[in-house]
Amino acid sequence: MKSHPISYIEALKAQSVISQYLTPTPLTKYENLSLLIGAEVFVKHENHNPTGSFKIRGGINLMHHLKQVGTKGVITFSTGNHGLSIAQSAAWFGMDATIVVPENNNPVKNNSIKATGATLIEAGKNFEQASQVVTELLEKQDLYYVHPANEPHLINGVGTEFIEMIEAVPDLDAVILPIGAGSEAAAATIVLKTINPDIQIFAVQAQASSAVYQSWKAGQIIASDNTTFAGGFATGTAYEMPFEIYKNNLTDFVVLTEAEIYEGIALAAHYTHNYLEGAGASTIMAAIKLKDQLQGKKVALQFSGCNATPEEINHAYNLPTFYRGKEII
């Protein structure tokens, strides 16, 4: 499975599979955000997917292929959205799933994983330590190891969101998306750059977990601290397979403080009335920081997920920007 090609053609094949389970998510133009940024701003609502995240696309595509070769069960590590995607997709395809998450992981995501019938194991202090537990379990169980990034069928499946995006707005100039393990940035590259090599792809990550940003700047994979509250960003390293695809195809990179990530959650609610998690809402703050580069363009912000904790939402919704929005400068 891990030697399967990653390409626009494979994303088109994945679309025929995924369309049996998902309806296309909206790409909505927001006039208030357009006025704020000085561009035509659209939002791709991946937060409206089952499981509340874009990752379900990759999960469905992978399980479709694994089922064809008789795989009985899978195992992976995750901070939540990837694990929930694998757990739910496995359940739909009648397969067993074991999901390893870090200790003190987002309880909203943990409960959703359990609700699929998957086995949830809490172990390790962070994303990387959880991966080590998977390695230990694989020695005892006959399961297919789903890596959250180095897995072609995940990347091809995620590519379907960008097919939908470009079909809806063919003359799109730029896309802003959050980046953690990197499957989405890789998927955006294989689809959007194939259709329009001039389209701009901007990435956003947490300053507290900025390994991907540092790797992109250096042109090689670098490990770094991983302490952000925002699970969608919470990786301490870039991963080889997606990194090789997106590393030379990103126009620019935005890094956000924890306070700015919370502000993004507040702004998403204020301007779009959507309930989002930190990584999911980060693209609004990134667009504000990229405002000068985006003037007059057609820009898509990706809302990647909505699985925030009540504490995160409470913190964000007590910020002034939840009530007032952002001042137009």
Summarize the helices and strands and which ones pair or pack.
Blueprint: H1 8-18, E1 27-29, H2 31-37, E2 40-45, H3 56-68, E3 73-77, H4 81-92, E4 96-101, H5 107-115, E5 119-122, H6 127-138, E6 144-145, H7 152-168, E7 174-178, H8 183-195, E8 200-206, H9 211-218, H10 240-246, E9 252-256, H11 258-272, H12 278-289, H13 291-294, E10 298-303, H14 310-317, H15 320-324
Parallel strand pairs: 2-10, 3-4, 3-6, 4-5, 7-8, 7-10, 8-9
Antiparallel strand pairs: 1-2
Helix pairs in contact: 1-7, 3-4, 3-7, 4-5, 7-8, 8-10, 11-12, 11-14
What is the number of helical segments per DSSP (H or I, 4+ residues)? 15
The overall strand count is: 10
Principal-axis shape equals globular
Q: What is the radius of gyration computed over CA atoms, rounded to a whole number of angstroms?
A: 18 Å
Verbal overview:
The protein has 329 residues and is α/β, with parallel strands linked by helices. It has two domains: 10-53 and 153-322, Rossmann fold, CATH 3.40.50.1100; 56-145, 3-Layer(aba) Sandwich (Rossmann fold). 47% of the residues lie in helices and 15% in strands. It has 15 helices and ten strands. It has helices at 8-18, 31-37, 56-68, 81-92, 107-115, 127-138, 152-168, 183-195, 211-218, 240-246, 258-272, 278-289, 291-294, 310-317, 320-324; strands at 27-29, 40-45, 73-77, 96-101, 119-122, 144-145, 174-178, 200-206, 252-256, 298-303. The chain has a six-stranded mixed β-sheet, with helices on both faces. Helix 8 (183-195) links the parallel strand 7 and strand 8 (200-206). It starts with 7 loop residues before the first helix and ends in a 5-residue tail after the last helix. The relative contact order is 0.16.
